[in-house]
Amino acid sequence: MDDVIKMLLVSPLFQGIPEEKMMEVLRCLDARWADFEKGQQLFRQGTSLKAAGFLVEGSLSLEREDFWGNRSILAVVRQGEIFGEVYACRQEKRLNINITALEKASVLFLNLETILESQKFPEDIRTVLLGNLVGILADKTYYMSRKAEFLSARTTREKLMSYLSAQAQETGKTEFQIPFNRQEMADFLSVERSAMCRELGKMRREGIVSFSKKQFCLKGKAKEE
């Protein structure tokens, strides 16, 4: 549990919380542990999410699925990240996504509604948690606005260039690693995998980008299609 506490202390939600207060905070958040196997769905569209999740181990996919079963990846959750906070704060809202384990995962579920109940927390702790939660929600809003930019591009190449450019800008490096394999990347950008791979091959031959699996390096000047 000590390793988990250390992981929680550097997470956005608990920044500024003294280590000696963490067990008390977790009790107030009705923290509970759950394990999931690879490929297991934690939650399906249309269900309610009663608590946010802190991913202790593994990775998760947040996916949207249409009537015909077509999948679009909204985000991948990695170790140490929080998911489901919007739905956990508004429990009357039903999920419009599926949450699936990409690999064996361990999750600590936290009832964020208790933060709104002032009597459950000392005022100083509650103030820190509320400020951190607002910051997390703002970051998620920014992330979704960036994804809207990628999807608004007209062609597969424009979507790829928009996404890869954003990754370079966020890391401050021309060489970086993306969180997706090729199928997940295609689902995230809402393009056909085969068409995306062909376009990546063209971009590599033109000297715009080099890559190996999840590792990418931007170089040269992008050419007009």
TrEMBL record:
Domain Cyclic nucleotide-binding positions: 13-86
Keyword annotations from UniProtKB, A to Z: DNA-binding, Transcription, Transcription regulation
Top-level division of the source organism's lineage: Bacteria
Domain (HTH crp-type) ranges: 154-222
Gene3D superfamilies: Jelly Rolls
SUPFAM superfamilies: cAMP-binding domain-like, Winged helix' DNA-binding domain
Family annotation (SMART domains): cNMP, HTH_CRP
InterPro entries xrefs: cNMP-bd_dom (IPR000595), cNMP-bd_dom_sf (IPR018490), Env_Response_Regulators (IPR050397), HTH_CRP (IPR012318), RmlC-like_jellyroll (IPR014710), WH_DNA-bd_sf (IPR036390)
Protein name: Crp/Fnr family transcriptional regulator
Organism expressing this protein natively: Claveliimonas bilis
Taxonomic placement: Bacteria, Bacillati, Bacillota, Clostridia, Lachnospirales
